[in-house]
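A brief tutorial aside. Many learners find it easier to grasp structure tokens once they have seen a single protein encoded end to end. The record that follows does exactly this for Aminopeptidase N-like N-terminal domain-containing protein. Read the sequence first, then the structure, and try to relate runs of similar tokens to stretches of the chain.
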Amino acid sequence: MCIKLQACIILKMVYNNYLLLMLIPNVVLSSKTNTFQLPPNALPLQYNLTIEPNFENVDQATFNGSVVIKIKILNDSNNITIHSKNLTINEDSVKIILSNKTTIDVTHTLVDIRRDFYIICLNKNLTKNEIVHLYINEFNGNLKFDNVGFYLARYQDLNKESPD
């Protein structure tokens, strides 16, 4: 098995001695038996991500968000698959818009919990080299301390006492 991980922290926020971090891997795992790798039919080019954390109760913190992903289609396909670990996505908020501003109907979505996939099935084939925009206008999740996805991390300010 070859493990190749490139990642960047795209959000770092401090709230009451908690760090709020999001880690987005560019490449996850690759091996002959890897079933977590996304199908090779789409390449994300750009993300426009909005996240609104709710810290009312840090031990049960949540977040809401939306994203627009600019995607290049690499192989003809009637679906787009993304990773969605621990996210709840409002299916009615999912849209695919072509570069000519035409909206492609989403016929249904599937959730593959084992592989953390969210599969968006379309009523039309997307063609190779086409540029599309995937809109997910409403998703939410829980902030945890498990260092996966969008998570909380605790630190101690050396000049002050840590809360608790």
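Self-check: Residues 2 and 30 are 6 Å apart (CA to CA). If you spotted this yourself, you are ready for the next section.
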